[in-house]
Each structure stands twice: as C-alpha cells, then as structure tokens.
Amino acid sequence: MLQLSKSLCMRTLASLEDSYERCRQITAKYAKTFYLGTLLMSETKRKAVCAIYAWCRRTDELVDGALAASTTPETLDRWEKQLESVFAGEPIDDLDVALADTLQRFPMDIQPFRDMIAGQRMDLFCNRYKTFEDLKLYCYRVAGTVGLMSVTIMGIEPKTYKAPWDHSGEVYVPTEEAIALGIANQLTNILRDVGEDIKRGRIYLPLEELALFNYTEQDLLNGVIDGRWRELMRFQIARARKFYAQAEKGISALSRDARWPVWAASMLYSQILDAIEGNEYDVFGKRAYVSTPQKFLCLPNAYLRAQIL
Q1: What mean pLDDT is reported for the chain?
Q2: What is the DSSP string of 130-194?
Q3: Is 294 helix (H, G, I), strand (E, B) or coil?
Q4: Number of neighbouring beta carbons within 10 Å of residue 92
Q5: Are 116 and 80 in contact (CB under 8 A)?
Q6: 224-260 as b/e, with b when 16 or more CB fall inside 10 Å?
Q7: pLDDT-derived band of residue 16, with 50, 70 and 90 as boundaries?
Q8: Contact of 190 with 197, CB cutoff 8 Å
Q9: pLDDT score of 2 more than 70
Q10: How far is CA 1 from CA 4, 17, 230, in A?
Q11: Which of these, 186, 91, 199, 107, lies nearest to 144 by C-alpha position?
Q12: CA–CA dist 268, 264 (Å, integer)
C-alpha cells in the first residue's frame, strides 16, 4: 500500500480505489479503442495502464484542451515539478494517487514522462514540421514514450529454454518495438485528424513530403482531394504500417497475459488506416473510425496471434 508523508496525510485526497476509478473513466471516455484492449488485461495491469493513460491525457490537455490558450512554458514547468513529487511518492492531486501507486507496483524511470512533457513544449512553439525526422522526434515524445511506460507494466516473459552454452541470463526487452507502436499510433492519429488540425493552424505532415507530391499548404487548407493527395496519403499510410509491423515483432517477448491485449490494441488502432482508405482518403469531411462490431470481430484473430506468434 502506498505510504504518504505526514503533510500529505493531512490533505483530503481521493482514496486509492476512487483515484483508480477516475483514471478508468478518463480512459474509457477518451480512448475507446485503447480501453477495449485494457479489458483483456489482468485487473492490476489494467488499473496501472489507466493510471498512466490518465496522466498522459492530462499532459496532452495542457496544450490541446479547453484551457490550452493559457498554457505557458511555466505551466509545463509546474507540471513537471508535480510529476517529480509523484515519483517521490508524494501525490499532489486525486489522480496522482493512482499514478504513485502504479509507480510503486511497477517501478519505472521518470525520463519517458519528462520526454512527453518536452513533446508538449514542442506543440507550444511549433505548428509545422519540415522533415519526417523532425516529426518522428515529436511522435516519440508524445506517444513513443507511452510504449516505454507500458512495456514495464506488460512485463517480459523469461525464456524457459536456453542453449546449454547460453549463460548470459539476459532477457530481451522490446524497447524499440514499444516505441514503434507508440509512433505508429501517433502517425495514425495525425492522418485521421488532418482536417481538425488544419483548422487549428497545425500541419503535422512533413512539409518536404507535401512538396514531394506537389501538394501545397493552400491545398491542405482548402481540403483538396485529388490524385496528388491520394498518393501522398498512400505514402503516409504505408509508413505507419511499417511501424506497426516493427512493433508486432516484439509482442512475443511480453508476458503471456499481456500479448492478447497488446495484439488487440495494435490491430484495432491500425484499422483506422483501413477506415481512411475506405473513406477514399477524405480526412477533411469524414471521421475515420472502427465500428464496435469490427472491434469485436478483431478480438479472436488477436487471440490467435497471441498464442502462435
């Protein structure tokens, strides 16, 4: 059980149970596809993942939420100080209670959390990305970091059988694959939300790649869908799928009880790319999503992959 300092005990913070429940509600409301995957996890891992998601959501809301206009670098500095308090076992608000307990149950490094905050700093000052390498750094910070946080909770399956001469005792941790899944998810978000982002003055598609397909910022503002746009989107979708493929290579290294939910989450989210294609690449007037029946039809396939791959 999480031990609080005397000063914190004097505060009226939510109980551990209530804090986790609020994190669950946030996850269920804002990440429906992701939340479905968490339902396949053990209770302990599900609660921990929801605590992580709730923190990530609140971090993102600082620059994309209702009060984003009032967010300054100093706001993010204060948020990072609050994060440090949580890592010191001293939660400041109700939702921090669940996160602090999660960190006690699943010890992890603070750096991915700091990196995510750094990603929000990028959103404060940057609304265009010249190259994919620039965009990839952003995607790592705001989403690849989630993979790093989550892999600790998912756990690693130790090798039962090893060659007689293998005395290393090392266990493979799919760090790069976890980052790849986060990047794949973020690229999917970017492609799905092109229309919404342009209304907010943001273009996440690399400017060099717009030029490569002779597609201009003005075309983007006008929501032009033509041959140039379709080729550009095919190029972007193909790259996102490569990141999903890279991520999937690391799932077999995870604990057995984590493989099904991770396969499900990966497959479900990648289907948003299928939906974009089904909408004939219209991300300006149509919202690409995966229907509930489609989601449930995906689960048996994900289960089979978890057993044999």
Answers
A1: 93
A2: SSHHHHHHHHIIIIIHHHHHHHHHH-BPPPS---TT---------HHHHHHHHHHHHHHHHHHTH
A3: helix
A4: 16
A5: no
A6: ebeebbeebbeebbeebeebbebbbebbbbbeeebbb
A7: very high
A8: yes
A9: no
A10: 10, 12, 54
A11: 186
A12: 6
Any idea which residue has 């992701």 for tokens? 34
Q: Which residue has the tokens 């999903």?
A: 244
Give dist(CA 246, CA 156) in Å, integer. Answer: 18
Task: Give the distance from CA 264 to its chain's centroid.
Answer: 14
Among residues 131, 289, 282, 291, which one has the least CA distance to residue 195?
Answer: 282
Cα–Cα distance for residue pair 76/205, rounded to 1 Å: 25
Q: What is the pLDDT of residues 25-46, one digit of tens each?
A: 999 999 988 999 999 999 999 9
Give me the half-sphere count of Cα atoms (radius 13 Å) on the Cβ side of residue 266. Answer: 32
The 10 Å Cβ neighbour count of residue 125 is 7
309 pLDDT tier (thresholds 50, 70, 90): confident
User: pTM of the full predicted structure?
Assistant: 0.91
Rounded CA separation 269/264 (Å): 8
CB 262 within 8 A of CB 213: no
pLDDT of residue 11 exceeding 90, the answer is: no
Which residues, 6+ apart, have CB-to-CB distance to 244 below 8 Å? 180, 181, 184, 266, 270
Would you state the structure tokens that stand for residue 137, as one six-digit string? 């750094």
Give CA–CA dist 271/291, Å, rounded.
10
Q: How far apart are the first and last CA of the chain?
A: 37
